[in-house]
């Protein structure tokens, strides 16, 4: 059974209904063991599992007077049973299912393939303990870096890299080959590259050299043939005493002159496209000139065609010649890439399909089931249009076995495929909508034909939104050539309305001469739309702004974040956190303590975090000094106790926590930093040389490492169209609709060639423009496919809207180059009376339903302590200890303790409170009272000597005794072999306090100190001392 499910048509409902129907057929309560449901994302898996369990739970709770839900009606009708019987069956199935949850096979295609891969690991030559990685991009980057590192040691590679860099500079790209090479190497991750790359790997360096030499020879021969043909034409003209001025606009002879001189020329001018009917001269030309040209006309036309053939051939060989360089580098990268995976015992998700395909394609289904440990009889595949060829072919043997046989209850196996070719937007990662289209037309790999069911009703959007999309995409489908692509839009784009009336669609067009004019206008118009929606009662989280390109999303994010809470892929990047940047700088200093630039960055980030309005240039100058103590001097000036030597002795995670504690950054820790710390902890658990490797790993993944935002977060969603797939929003705003639909400069394909004529090579990875003149059919088919794919992207974008859809475009002319141009074309054809308007509206906005406000949880306080201090004690306290007055006293004591830990000498006290006033986190009254009390303490006659400038003192220094216990006195004042131990207390006296200082003395004696003085300072309105 095949469900053609357009956007918002309730495909998940239909899929769950079919699953429940099959699950509840009266056979056994463990019938779920024979069911396999496959989708493409973990989120979709979680949603489907949740819906199945919720429905089963709801079915079991049926009471006689209950009104049946739509799902209960549908399942009861399909099973031909009543609700009580449905409840009885559901009860048994749910109980069994929850007790055997591991057999509940609703999973992603990658998860299922992983199971298959584990099953056949030995057959595939894999170690049983192989690890799966989703970070193929990072491994590829590592491979590219490794190839570049061989520069200078491999002569042929070095020469190739130099040529690659020269090619890039000729095309106005960076001379640095790393970026372009990585872009080229990403083709290794594509499914359609598997076989071409395998064949490429079989080629040796000598093969590549031979190919280069052959192409260079042919390029030279055809170029010389072109020049000689042009010379022949010009000689023919000279023999006939004809000059440039004798020809119509001089076009023909000037064209040949340029060819003779080796210049680049066009071949698509009007006279060139119709050379047979071209008037070589004007009617005013002299008679003898006309006669002379007419006498050689056929010869001139023949030589023109000959020159054109030479030009096309020369261009062809030139393009092939240029592509040998990146293909050679691709060969190097692939070999290193495979070596890295082998060394680390890794298998990428992208490899699953290929490895499985190679092994199970020749295995009978019963053998596969035996190895897998499960025998599936009923298959449910969601988002089938995104299934790749190999993924589908890997499933076909299992499905075919189920469809062609009956089980012990004489029940035949089933297959339900759900998809929509119009929503296929992942061709670049292997998604093949043609498979869905072929099945829809009756082409099947099975013995039985599929029955096609079209889910025509849109349950998501309001009437005006559905009506606009119906008309628009049905019209845009006419721009596709006759065939399945066109039929897909003309026959399936139109959806039925639901009961939700109203809704609004707006179009806005404006003119802009350049990007500098365009971007600010887009931003202003998007803000206007947002403000209007907020006035209408929508929440920020109801609004989604979609863009086609990431760069446009970044532009909008920077502007919108000034006025609204915004969630975007870039705003969620961990590297956007200043505190994360500080932590990275701190780790870098472990190996690069002398690097002044890193020290300055560390301090700059700190000053920005604590909220200093103006960065302290004196401190920045101090920290950049050429001195080993520059960093500590600057941090001491900020009353921060930090030791680079100590941090360097710690592990990765402990180093990060030490940085946070030393810089007093606990109050500033957010979800960004917590996630970053989790990454570090996880990395340390799997790597020995953690810190150095972590920095290298972070450099590779910093542009991708990001947070997952909470669903209920009240913020505008800003994302690309591809990220929005499967989502829906009350309001969708789509600016930047003027981006080029098909950028032919960046479109590549594997193009087959005759190996007999190209040194045994069977294909080249070529830009699509390379075959424009040599293989028109393939070129046109490729562009048709790409136009279909782009139309799908915009279909997905516009069908995300529930209540309101707003399109904004700087495309003011109707054309097929941009989506905005296509919309203009629609207006010209279908609504000509409004086509000249720059602002159009359909429908009226609806008042959104009042939503229950979700109380956001306050973020938990981040606590960091030296692990050696983690001694947990339970203290029973009287009830009145928690009264408000006592709590305030405790807070003040903690605060004063913190201030004292940041003061080394009496002159630092004013600096500390100046900084605290700038932070504005405490009231002026609090700070004034605290400062007065600390001044009284520091100026106390018996305490003042220990706070003078020049005194060697350590605040909260950790002391490890011979038993491994950690002691941390509040202050130590050191003078040769004598030491003063000072501890601050903020309550009444207690005999245990003396014992505590005696333990400090015992620990210090083990370090060689001989003379001791101990002072307990009771810090209250009057300073009291206990000295011994």
Please provide a written account of the structure:
49% of the residues lie in helices and 11% in strands. The chain is α/β, with parallel strands linked by helices. It has 5 domains: 217 residues, P-loop containing nucleotide triphosphate hydrolases (Rossmann fold); 214 residues, no CATH class; 195 residues, P-loop containing nucleotide triphosphate hydrolases (Rossmann fold, 3-Layer(aba) Sandwich), CATH 3.40.50.300; 129 residues; 150 residues, Lambda Exonuclease, Chain A (Alpha-Beta Complex), CATH 3.90.320.10. A 7-stranded mixed sheet has the order 11-12-10-13-16-9-17, sandwiched between helices. α7 packs across α13 and α22 packs antiparallel against α23. It starts with a strand and ends with a strand. About 1% of the residues have low confidence.
Topology:
Elements: E1 2-5, H1 11-23, E2 35-39, H2 42-60, H3 70-79, H4 83-99, E3 106-108, H5 109-119, E4 131-133, H6 136-149, H7 155-170, H8 178-185, H9 194-201, H10 205-239, H11 251-260, H12 270-273, H13 287-343, E5 346-348, H14 352-360, H15 365-372, E6 378-381, H16 389-403, E7 414-419, H17 433-440, E8 452-455, H18 463-476, H19 484-492, E9 503-509, H20 515-535, E10 543-547, H21 550-560, E11 566-567, H22 578-591, H23 596-609, H24 617-623, H25 630-637, H26 644-648, H27 652-662, H28 671-686, H29 690-701, E12 716-720, H30 721-724, E13 729-734, E14 748-752, E15 763-767, H31 776-798, E16 801-809, H32 819-830, E17 839-844, H33 884-901, H34 908-919, H35 924-938, E18 952-955, E19 959-960, E20 966-967, E21 971-975, E22 978-985, H36 991-1005, E23 1011-1018, E24 1024-1027
Parallel strand pairs: 1-7, 1-8, 2-3, 2-6, 4-5, 6-7, 9-16, 10-12, 10-13, 11-12, 13-16, 22-23
Antiparallel strand pairs: 9-17, 14-15, 18-21, 19-20, 21-22, 23-24
Helix pairs in contact: 1-2, 1-3, 2-4, 5-14, 6-8, 6-13, 7-13, 10-11, 10-13, 14-16, 15-16, 18-32, 22-23, 23-24, 24-25, 34-35
